Amino acid sequence: MRITVIGAGVIGLSCAHDLAEDGHEVTVVADHGPGDTVSALSAALWFPFAAEKSPTVDRILERSLARFAELAGQASDAEGAGADQVTDDIPPVEMRTGTVFERATPPDRSWVDPVVAVLGQDAVHPVDGGMETTLPMIMMPTYLAWLMDSCRIAGVRFRWEKVESLAALADTADAVVVAGGLRGGELLGGDEEVTPIRGQVVVLANGYEADDEDGADGEEDGEDGADPGVAPLTRWATDNDHPDGETYVLPRVDSVVVGGTADVGSWDEEPSAETAEAILARAAVLVPETATLPILGHGVGLRPGRTTLRVEQVDPTDLPSVGVPVIAAYGHGGSGVTLSWGTAERVVELVDGL
């Protein structure tokens, strides 16, 4: 079948990749490249942040975790064989250990079941203040570039333009997949459940060498008073029940993403200096090493929130002018990366069932 996928974020690219691998002729249509989507700002750790709790979502979570663990295994095998750590054909995904700190009573451990189901009982164990686990860390936006290359290798074509009407796509597609994030509901005629969830982050350098001019020179921690530098961080930490706001420190290879916020209904895409200062203060308590890391930049993304995740075929009577089947794949909120591969597999099932 000829399938048009709307959206070039992590959901759209994952769906396009799996549809092409399933033998379909796939075209991605989007007005922004992957690097300009909210996906590029994702931290991104496989973890169901504020994800809907349902059997369907649980299945999607498990399938995504399994795929990311497989990609991390491929990257590890390639590195062990002497390949460069980051190349076009090696997925930038690593298994990283960290701690989920808990404050609520009882704590929300719904995320544990899919982890144990996929990675085994030894992947999770209690520690002082929370739970320690080893999960896939996805190196965005390098991962998006790898995913786009993987799509092209699979035969996916790209067209860079803004879709104003689904009906305009009917002449060149046998089915349409709407993975347009916040625009998903708009393209389907209006979805009052879709709302932005503003997230702000600060990106830090992941360590620096002693006396690095961009580092925190003047810290008298060394024997001679010189700055001793900071080794790159590898362990991650989350404290999403923090009373002053969700808090996380997620190290990539060359940077550390610290956050964050979850401002429901806010369309403000400008970073707030006051919010950034508060984020950094919370992060320094969670992981003290972050207090001396140089700031690389600030980011704001509008997550596509929805009361429930929508991955389903749209009732044709709701879109009488389109003329071809339409599949919705949006409303992932703060778990877009986490749910991406499971969403793609479900979309393939829906297309195959047409």
In short:
The protein is α/β, with parallel strands linked by helices. The chain contains 7 helices and 15 strands.
Give the helices and strands, then pairings.
Blueprint (H helix, E strand, L loop, with lengths): L1 E5 L3 H12 L3 E6 L24 H26 L12 E9 L10 H8 L4 E4 L2 E9 L3 H12 L3 E4 L14 E4 L5 H4 L7 E11 L30 E4 L7 E5 L3 E5 L3 E2 L8 H14 L8 E11 L4 E4 L12 E5 L5 H17 L2
Structure description:
By secondary structure, this protein is an alpha/beta fold. The chain has two domains: 2-95 and 136-194 and 306-352, 3-Layer(aba) Sandwich (Rossmann fold); 195-304, D-Amino Acid Oxidase, Chain A, domain 2 (2-Layer Sandwich). The protein contains seven helices and 15 strands. The chain has helices at 10-21, 55-80, 112-119, 142-153, 184-187, 273-286, 336-352; strands at 2-6, 25-30, 93-101, 124-127, 130-138, 157-160, 175-178, 195-205, 236-239, 247-251, 255-259, 263-264, 295-305, 310-313, 326-330. Strands 3, 4, 5, 8, 9, 10, 11, 12 and 13 form a nine-stranded mixed sheet that branches. One of its GO terms (biological process) is D-amino acid catabolic process. Pfam families: DAO. Residues 211-232 are annotated as: Disordered. This is D-amino-acid oxidase.
